[in-house]
Amino acid sequence: MNKSIWLITHDNYIDRRIFFFADVFRGMGYSVRLFPSFYFDLLSDEDPDYVCRPVDTVRLKSYAADIQALSPKAQDFLSRFQSAQERYRQEHGAYAPSLRALSCPLPEGERWSVSVAAQEGFYSLDVRGKSEGFGYSSLTDSLCILHHPGRCEECAEHEAAILEYLTHHRDFFGKTFSVGSINVRSSSNRFGETVVYAHHPSFNRMCVYNLAEKALYEITPIPFAPSETQQLGGQTFCYGEYEQIVYDFSPILENIRRALLEEVPEMVYVADLPTLPLGLMLKEACGCRLMVDCHEWWYKQARLWEKNFARKIELSEQAEAQLYPKCDLCITVGRYLADDMSKCYQRPFEVVYSCMSEQLAAKAEDKDPLFWKKRFGLPEGARVAVFQGSMTSLRNLDNLARATRQLGEGHYLVVVGGGPYEAEFRKILEKEGNPEKALFAGWVAQNELMRYTVNADLGVLPYSAVDEYFSYSVPNKLMEYFEATLPMLYDRSMKEISMVAGENRVGVGADLMNPEEFGETMERLLSSPELLAELRQNYAPCKDKFRYDSQRRMVEGMMRQYFAEKAIIN
């Protein structure tokens, strides 16, 4: 019997941890749907088929359409126009350039905008009304219907880019190609049909052309519509102020309402607090089991990043106290965080580390001794420390920039990622660091990231604990470095990182708030191939601790423990 799990997240760029859970659930025999926020970016990884973005899809044009799809008035007008053109050609030896020349008036009561073009041997007709439009070419004897004439005008640049791609650039299938300011990518949908997407990075819309259907569609986000009360499954819920201040989940809620018309999930997995109300609504309205996966302790996270938004912090704290006890299973990312949350909410929080999925795991072919030479032109034998992740405040990146001053000949720092702090990082690098020692890879797709990790000599985790909660952080890069068996440099104040890297003797701790000690330790490690080799060798007995199979078994065990009658583990 088919069982289903729905995954819900506020993320637009979906965290790889969520994909890990999706992989595990699918491996256990569940069908999966993933409901994130909307996100249009053809430069990022393509969504798996089970991802359900909160979008509206409208057919704009139907090419090679049947005349019967037109309104009766439009059918009659097109037939009269075609007959009149043939009579005109018999009399004048060419096609007429206008309706007036044909004595072919518009249907009574219509105020269509009509354009006629006559060439030697063929003609074309373009008709635009408020609610209907169509085009006809005698050259190909093809009819094109405009279902939304006004929106077709707005998407003309996208359509032109798709046409350019199909005409000249089909060899880029599966890759993103830029046509002017429009990004274009082709793919196969879940029915095996070839589709071509077009997106302008400045606009919240995307166009897609389906070659099998010969149809052009526009995709736009479901609009926000927060309210005092929410409706789901015939029940009324009250998350009005939460939805307006903490997180506006209204587009995702509408997407879930639509999905409920097709199926009701057996279980719901929610990633973090923002969309947890949606999980509780589904549990109460549909009777499904509910698990929450806390990537963060949300109200404490809000105190760090939005310390001046007192009401948001207060509402988050209240929601966590009220909602976590109603979940059937609570999970988080590390042991220290699990222990504190368990004590706070008087219920167990289980631990699953954010390992790499099978698809994103390190592969032998990722290793390339010339990688840094090919990517940045570095000399052969150069040693590289890598920092990968978002460039934001509270990550001690200022001292990482200053630490580059200590790097010696042939030693470099590569920053893989980007973010709002990058401009400040570069300023500090120029004034207090060594800009010749720092290289920037920019944002790298998740399926390419491991190539940077496995070819580095040292993985840097610059975070320093600004409070007790922050010391529990388990950044994604910790598990990425572990996956690549990469020696690490970390701050001793970070408790979870110190436990994972320090107790397994695969990294070196230091006071990274001190830029001199930061730089000197980084340089000492890069200057000592023997020490780096020893740290790599220390991975031998523990390298599988945090990999996919071990964490998969953890999840399967939790499913047996908490949902014995529901689990269908193979």
Explained architecture:
The strands form four sheets. This protein has a ten-stranded antiparallel sheet. The protein has a six-stranded parallel sheet with strand order 2-1-15-16-17-18, sandwiched between helices. It contains 20 helices and 24 strands. Helix content is 35%, strand content 22%. It has 570 residues and is α/β, with parallel strands linked by helices. The longest helix has 21 residues, at 72-92.
SSE topology:
Layout: E1 3-9, H1 16-27, E2 30-35, E3 55-62, H2 72-92, H3 99-102, E4 113-119, E5 122-128, E6 133-137, E7 142-146, H4 149-154, H5 156-168, E8 176-179, E9 182-188, E10 194-199, E11 206-210, E12 215-221, E13 230-232, E14 235-237, H6 240-245, H7 250-260, E15 267-271, H8 276-286, E16 289-294, H9 298-305, H10 310-323, E17 329-332, H11 335-345, E18 350-351, H12 371-376, E19 383-388, H13 397-403, E20 411-416, H14 422-432, E21 438-442, H15 446-454, E22 458-461, H16 476-483, E23 488-491, H17 495-502, E24 507-510, H18 515-526, H19 529-537, H20 548-562
Parallel strand pairs: 1-2, 1-15, 15-16, 16-17, 17-18, 19-20, 19-22, 20-21, 22-23, 23-24
Antiparallel strand pairs: 3-7, 3-12, 4-5, 5-6, 6-7, 8-9, 9-10, 10-11, 11-12, 13-14
Helix pairs in contact: 9-10, 13-14, 13-18
Q: Brief description of this entry?
A:
The chain has 570 residues and is of the alpha/beta class.
Count of individual beta strands: 24
Overall pLDDT: 93
State the share of residues found in helices, binned by percent: 25-40%
Adjacency order of strands in the biggest sheet: 4-5-6-7-3-12-11-10-9-8
The general outline is globular
The proportion of strand residues reads 15-25%
Tally the helices: what do you get? Answer: 20
Calculate the terminal CA-CA distance, rounded to whole Å: 13 Å
As a whole number of angstroms, the C-alpha radius of gyration is 29 Å
For the largest beta-sheet, the strand count, sense and barrel status come to:
10 strands, antiparallel
Low-confidence blocks of residues = 565-570
Structural class: alpha/beta
